Amino acid sequence: MQAPYSTTGSTGSPWAIVSAVLVGCGATAVAVVSQTGGWLVDQVLLVGGLDRLVPFWPLASLITALVIGTATLPLALLPRSRAVRTAGRAWLAGALTLGVLGMLRALPPVHHELYLGALAATAAVLAWLSARLSHRLAGVARSTDWATPEVAPPPPVREVPEVAPPPPVREVPEVAPPPAAGPSVVTLLAATAGLALLLPWVWLGALGGLLETVLAGLTAVAVGALAGALLDVRFWGTVAGGEPVRPARLVLLGGLVAGLVLLLVGAGVGQSGTQLPLLVALPPVGFALAALRVLSRRHPRTTGRTSTAWLVGLTVFGPLAFTDPEEISLLLIGSRDVPFWVAVAAGAGLVVALLLAIAYGLLLARPTARAPRRAVAAATTLVLLVTVGAVGVGAGQPGLHGERLFVVLRAQADLAGLPTGVGKAGRDDRAEEVYRRLVDTAERTQADLRRELRRLRLAHTPYYLVNGIEVDGGPVVRAWLSSRPEVARVLISQRLRPLPAPAEPSRGRSAAPVGPPWNITMIGADRVWSALRVTGAGVTVGSSDSGVDGRHPALAEGYRGGDDSWYDPWNGTRTPTDRSGHGTHTTGSAVGRGGIGVAPGADWVGCVNLDRNLGNPASYLDCLQFMLAPFPPGGDPFDDGRPGRAPEILTNSWGCPPIEGCDPRTLRSATDALEAAGILVVAAAGNTGPFCGSVQDPPARYPDVLTVGAVDRQRRVTDFSSRGPVPGGLVKPDLVAPGADVVSAMPGGGYAALDGTSMATPQVAGVVALMWSANPDLVGDLDQTRRLLRATTTAVPTGSGSGSGSGSGAQGGDCGDAGNVAGAGLVDAYAAVRAAQG
C-alpha cells in the first residue's frame, strides 16, 4: 500500500511539474496583463474625457480570478504530489484574494481614505479566514490515510535523532528566548529587508494626509498578515517536496511559488496605478522569505508568519503611502513628474528585492550557514531604520501633503442692478460694484464658519468669487462641514505631492517664424494690422495658465508691469515665469510680438493656476479672483483688490474635471460674476473629441463663457476638438479657431508648434482685443461682442464627408445641431474688426 506514495515526498511526477510550471507562467501573464491593461483603460477614459466605468475593475478582477482559479483548481486537487497540490492551493488562494480586493476599486479614487479603510478591513478579514482555513486543513490532513505517509514517512522517523539531537535541545533557550526578550533573528532580518525596500519610496515619494497615511499603514499591516496566513508553516513544509528539506530546493521552488502568490496579492492592493510597482517588487520577496524560512527551521519556536508580515507589509506600505494613485497618470507623463519617479522607485525596489533574494539565499540557505547573533541583527535593523528616517527628512519630501476640501456656501452675492455705463469707464464701475458685493457677501456669510475653523485650528483660505472656503481635513471634517446649514456642498480640492527634483522646463526647439504663421493669415489678423492699423493697443488680456516666460522676446514688451500684474499662488514667484511652457505658448498666440500673436499691441497680465498640468477648484479661483481685482504681492484679495486694474479679456486654456475636484457647478458663480463685471471669459472646449457631448468640464460648458473649438490647416474641425451639446441642450462650442500645429513662444526664448483647443482659445481672445481696440465703446459690452463674432465667422465643413463629420459620428450618430461641432464657424478677425468699427 505504500508504493504509490513513494514519490510524494519529492516534487512529483514530470507531468505534474510541467503542469505547475505552465499554470504558474500563465497566471503571472494573466495577472500582469489584466493590471497594466486595466490601468491603461482608466487612463484612456481620463484623457478622453469619458466617464469612469464603475463596474470595470470589479468585473476585471472577477474575470481574472476566474481565469487563474480555473487553471489552478486542478493543481490544488488532482496531483499525487503534495508539493504540487500545495502550490496549486496557494495560487488559488492568491487568485481569490485578487478577485476580492480588486472589487474595492469601484470606489472613486478621489475618496482615497475610504478606499484604504475598506482595503484594510477586507484584507484583515481575509487573513483571519485564511488562518482558520489553514488550521482546519492541517487537521484534516493529519486525520486522512493518504496524508499519513507524507506527514510521517519512515525516513523522517529514523532521522529524528539527527534532526533534534540533545545539543540543540539544550540551546533552545538561546535560539528561541521568551517573548519578553524581543523579536527573533528571523523577524529582525525580515524587518531589515522590508526597510530596505521602503527606502526608495521614502526618498522619491511624499506622504499624503495624516489619516491617509495612518490608513495606508493599517492596510500594510493587514496585507502583511494576509501574506503570512497564505504562506504559513504548512505551506513551507510541503511546497519544496517534504522531508528531508534541502535548503537550496526550498529557496528555489518555494521562492517561485511564493513569488506568484505575492504577485496575485499585490495585484489587488491599491487603486489603479498603485498596484503596478507591487507587481515588480513583491515576486522577488518570495525568495527572501524562502531563505528566511530555511533559517527559521533551525528555530523550532519561530512560526514565520511574523517575518512574512513585516517584510510584505513594509514592501506594500511604500507605494500605498508615498504615492497618490490619481497622480500616476498619463496627464503627468510628459515630463519628470510623479509617473517618472514612481517608475524609478519601482525599478529601485526591484533591484533591492533581487539583491536581498540573492544575499539571503546565499547567506542563509547554505547547509553550514549559521544565524547571525540577535544583537547584530537588531543593530542592522536599527541602522536601517535610522537611515530611512534620515533620508525621509533630508533627501525626501518631509511632511504631510494630503488633499484639502473646498466648501461651497449656499449664499451667493446678488449682482442685479449694476451700473450700466459703456466703455472702459463703465466696465470699471461695474467691476468695482461686483467686487464690493462679492466681498461683503463672503465676509458676512462665512463669519461663523471661519470662527469655528479657527477654534478647531483647521487651516483655511476664504474665497469670494465663489462664496467658499478651502479647508484642511479628511472625511471626518468633510462630514462635519456637510452637516452645517450654511454649507451647500463640500468638494475634494486635489493637491499635487512634491517631487524629489523639479520637472525639467519645457523649451522651444524652433527659431522665430519668418512672417505670420498660417493660423494668423487664416483668420486674417495680419490684414487687420496692415489694412486697418489695429493691433490691440489699449486692451489688456489676462492669462490664467501654467505661467508665462516674461523675458521671452515676443512677450517682454507686452507685459503690463506694476505690482499687480503677476500672481503665482503655487510657488510664490514675484516675476512672470513658466516651467511647463503651456502658458507661454497660449499667451504668445494672444498678444505675442513677431507675428505669432493675434493682438501684438495689447498688454498682458498673468497668473499660475496649473502646477505640473493639474489644478483644483481653489487654484482656479485664485487666478479668477486676481483677474477681477488684481492685488500686490502679499496682499489680501478681500481687502487689497483693485477692480479698476482688471484685464478686459481672460484667456483660459484649461478645464476643471472631476479628478481635480470640480463638479459641473463649481465655477458657475465665478463666471457669472465676471460676466456681470464686463470681463469676457474665453475658454477652451477641451481635447476630448470626437465624441458628442464631450464639452463637459467647467468653465467651457457655461453659457456666459465664449467656448472655442479647433480646426486644422484645411479648415476642418480636428478630431480632438470637443463637441457639444452640454447638458440641458446648450450648443457648444461657440466658434472655432486654428488649433493644430500652431507656432508660438516657449520658455527660454524659443518657439514650438503645439496642438489643442488650448492653442485656438487665445487667438479668439486676441480677436476680441482687436475689436475693442478698434472700438473702445465695445469694452464690457459682452452681448454685442459675441453677436459680432458669430455674425462674422466663416463656415467650416461639418458633414459626414469631412474630418469633423467622421468624428462627430463616432458614437453612432451626429451631435444634433451642426453648431455642436463647429459652433458658429471659424473666427474671422478682419471681418469682426470691420464690424466693430461699423
UniProtKB/TrEMBL annotation:
Highest taxon in the source lineage: Bacteria
Region of interest: Disordered: 574-594, 793-813
Bias type Gly residues, positions: 800-813
Active site residues according to the UniProt entry: 545, 582, 758
Entry's Gene Ontology BP terms: proteolysis
TM regions (residue ranges): 12-34, 54-78, 90-108, 114-133, 185-204, 210-230, 250-270, 276-295, 307-323, 338-363, 375-395
Keywords of this entry: Hydrolase, Membrane, Protease, Serine protease, Transmembrane, Transmembrane helix
One Gene Ontology MF term: serine-type endopeptidase activity
Domain Peptidase S8/S53: 536-796
Matches recorded under InterPro entries: Peptidase_S8/S53_dom, Peptidase_S8/S53_dom_sf, Peptidase_S8/S53_subtilisin, Peptidase_S8_Ser-AS, Peptidase_S8_subtilisin-rel
Family, as annotated: Belongs to the peptidase S8 family.
Full protein name: Peptidase S8
Organism of this sequence: Micromonospora radicis
Lineage: Bacteria, Bacillati, Actinomycetota, Actinomycetes, Micromonosporales
